[in-house]
Specification:
This protein is mostly helical. The chain has ten helices and no strands. Keywords: DNA-binding, Transcription, Transcription regulation.
Length: about 210
């Protein structure tokens, strides 16, 4: 039976979504094309009718995964995003959690198109959070962007560190709590009196 164009698009989207979760769980190099296709319910041979290479699938799955993280932003400000991002629920949901936290280390060793997908995704998140802060002047916008980029980097690092600990480790929860409090403090308007693009070395949890 011939597959319609609409069904082919749906099949491709299903493979991308499935790969996005599996990559987050096992890493880009931790799973092969055959296993990815099997998990999506297709044969290995069908892969090359849909994608030029595994790197193409990695790039598309990155876009898919970061779009899911972007859903955390909808209708919320940067502070609420940090609260959701640095939660135990998000930390434990590796396969459905942040693609950046799960795969940034892997991405650094991948082809440029994969790294470009990360760059575009990070830029999109920062822009959206900055716009939702409601700043007006160019100076305020630049300061807000620096603050949000700093907060995102700290939150991502905290999530990676927490996941590196055993699931029942008190330290895993402590890392989330300390970073969440400090990052929320850094996002307060009156905490921005430090040079743009730098963080306060003396800040402490609220």
């Amino acid at each position: 039976m011939k597959v319609t164009k609409g069904q082919a698009r749906a099949n491709r989207a299903h493979v991308v979504a499935t790969a996005s979760q599996i990559f987050r769980e096992h890493g880009f190099d931790g799973v092969g094309v055959a296993d990815l296709m099997a998990a999506a319910g297709f044969t290995h041979g069908g892969f090359y009718r849909q994608f030029g290479s595994k790197a193409d699938l990695m790039a598309e799955s990155t876009v898919c995964g970061i779009a899911q993280t972007a859903a955390l932003i909808e209708g919320v400000d940067a502070s609420e995003f940090v609260r959701r991002y640095l939660s135990r629920e998000h930390r434990d949901g590796r396969a459905t959690g942040c693609t950046m936290a799960a795969l940034s280390g892997d991405a650094a060793r991948q082809p440029e198109r994969v790294r470009a997908a990360f760059e575009q995704g990070i830029e999109s998140l920062v822009k959206t959070l900055s716009q939702q802060s409601g700043v007006s002047s160019a100076a305020d916008a630049a300061q807000t962007r620096a603050r949000i980029l700093d907060a995102l980097a700290h939150a991502l690092g905290a999530l990676v560190m927490s996941r590196a600990c055993p699931d029942d480790s008190p330290l895993a929860d402590e890392i989330l709590a300390v970073s969440r409090a400090a990052t929320l403090e850094s996002l307060r308007p009156d905490s921005s009196d430090h040079p743009q693009g730098t963080s306060q070395p003396s800040r402490r949890p609220a």
